[in-house]
Structures are given as C-alpha cells and as structure tokens.
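Minutes, project check-in
Item: structure for the 132-residue chain
Input as provided by the requester:
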Amino acid sequence: MNNGIGWFEIGTDRPAEVERFYGEVLGWTFGDDDDSTAADGTAYRIITTPAAESVRGGLYATGGKVPNYAVFTVLVADTAATCRQAEAAGGKVLLEPVTAPGGLTFAHLLDPSGNHFGVFTPPGEPRRLNDG
C-alpha cells in the first residue's frame, strides 16, 4: 500500500471537545494508544470509524503548542527519502522525520501550495534519518 493514505490525524488544543464532536456527528470512537505517550504525558488517542475496513487515525492533544490541524497521512517506503523528494519538488518539510518508540517514523510536509499532509514508514522498513 505504499503511497496510499494509511492514517489520518487530528491535532487539537481541545481534545475532549473534539472527541465529543466527532463521536456525536460521525460515530467515531476513541481509545488510548498503549504504545504512545507525548513527552508531556498526554496520551495519544486512536480513532476508529464505524465504516468497515476504514483507515484509522489518531488524536493528538497539542496543548496549544502548534495550531490545530487535521491531516491525511501517506504510507511511504522511506520517510526521510520522501522528505528529500518533496523538497526537491518544491514542497517543504514542516516536521523533520521522527521515530516513535515503537519504530514508526513520521514527518509533516507542505505541498507547493501550502497544503499540510503527513508521511510515515512502519517499523522494520527503511527509516534512516541521516542517509544522504
């Protein structure tokens, strides 16, 4: 599924309100991600939609440290290489590649017109951050 949408994420400074909203409006459910806790101790939340075989997502409590956002995230073979390709094609890296404790590597990008999206590589795939 490389280069297909494999995840979505909502970043918000009002996580309880956002959970209530999407739960009431779209029937989404939320649960703690046992593998991920932010540096400030805030649990990352997993979003499950009621649609069969739907892409799942995550809810990140920003604590107001970054603007609120909702982005789709694309599964790629190599996050660092994709970031280099995006810059070469006129995009911008907003968040350099980060490897989570479980091994997943992700980054946030802007396309040339300023649209925000994410990319990620699952654990076990190429994810060297300093390869040239």
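Outcome recorded: The chain has two helices and eight strands.
No further action items on this chain.
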